[in-house]
């Protein structure tokens, strides 16, 4: 898999400064729409946080065919990156944070519930119902026939890709993750409803311990594309990474 690594630009004399692994969304890349993940990584690194960005198989510069992935493959690839992160001396003994956007939010949530190396979780506009959400997006809301290969934006999505999403329940996984969570969503998101922030909040709220912080940004779309929305997103997330602010 293609990977980009950002070492911290400054040294912070704290043991709890994390390293962040970014999980991109459906047919995305480690760059992000309008350089979302590049800008995020640069902002985090400038504050002293190490960052790892990567392309899932068949996306960006990673080899493979994206539409032949199954959801379990995304989890496996994410855990492979986590193992790689552990090998870097500058990242060792740092708390590990998974940051997932859109479908990457669902992947990050399920991975975090399975892998105790993940200590904290950041979700940006996360998918809550992978099968229903991705079918709706990939078919422009018209649904699909069972066993059909779907062509979407140059990708051929196999029947097994969709089938693998049917039983995936990130909301159930959310109840099993013991760490702190930040969720940020845009009110103007036309792809993944902002109401999912409340749905996730209810799931995380059923845990006995650990904090859940939520922030909705007015006029922000799915990729936080405006200058104002993106700046708010990065400020909120950077502050939370250092636990300088509790978002409500």
UniProtKB/TrEMBL annotation:
Pfam families given in the database record: Hydrolase_4
InterPro entries named in the record: AB_hydrolase_Est10, AB_hydrolase_fold, Hydrolase_4
Entry annotated with the keyword Hydrolase: yes
UniProt KW Hydrolase keyword: yes
Serine aminopeptidase S33 domain segment(s): 19-134
Entry keyword set: Hydrolase
GO molecular function terms noted in the UniProt entry: carboxylic ester hydrolase activity
SUPFAM superfamilies per UniProt: alpha/beta-Hydrolases (SSF53474)
Protein name stated in the entry: Alpha/beta hydrolase
Organism name: Geobacillus subterraneus
